[in-house]
Amino acid sequence: MARFRLLPLLPLVALAACVNLGPLTGRATDEWTHTYPLTAGGEVRIANTNGRIDVEGVDGSTVEVRAERIARGVTDESARDLLPRITIREDVTPDRVSVETERLSGVMIGAGFEVRYHVKAPKKAIVNATNTNGVIALNGLAGKVSARTTNGGVRGEALSGSVDAHTTNGGVVIDLAAVASDGARLHTTNGGVTLTIAESARADFSASVTNGGISVGEFQRLDVSEKSRRHFEAKLNGGGPVIELTTTNGGVRIRPRNSVADTDKEDRKTDR
Question: Residues 60, 7: contact at Cβ < 8 Å?
């Protein structure tokens, strides 16, 4: 088990600004890569505080986690001193791999950090990714996916399992290669929601916004039961699993997969 200690970013940066220490130009990095066997249908859980989470679905029964740690300080020396204090906790069983960036009590003046997780997981694994300040990006997964972050976007490409994607400040951009029986729930508070879906899929759409609009692309077999500026209900190809799309401050877009390159360029900025 590897353990590295790390201090919370937001309190550190805020406190540094109060005493006017200037930019954190010092930098130190290191990384580790661990692999774990996982039983079929097992769960992969990644929990982060500051930084990006990328999860890619691959063939096989092995989980590979590469954690890239970036410490920042007033000087390179102070950044290097921070790296050994990072803690990444592993909790591994045959049917569950959990890797988490731990928090520490207290603060340090003039310091900051970022941890970037690059994960390769079996395509049909259950994936649970949570973040506080950073993007979650998912690609090529066929199992149940839950992705929740606070300050950052959620992006999914070629997903074919059930999807629960939630953020507070950021966009949600999901591409469904297939619709699972549990459907999908896509939600944000401050940002847009974009869904691309195969035109041949069967689904029930339920979209709502508070401050924003709803835009729906051209589908050959789309039966609309309700359409207004703030709410949209429709059945695609006779209906199927429910796909919920909601936002408070932002718009909702629903597009066929073949139009993705032309319709959601702005929403794809969520991974930057």
Answer: no
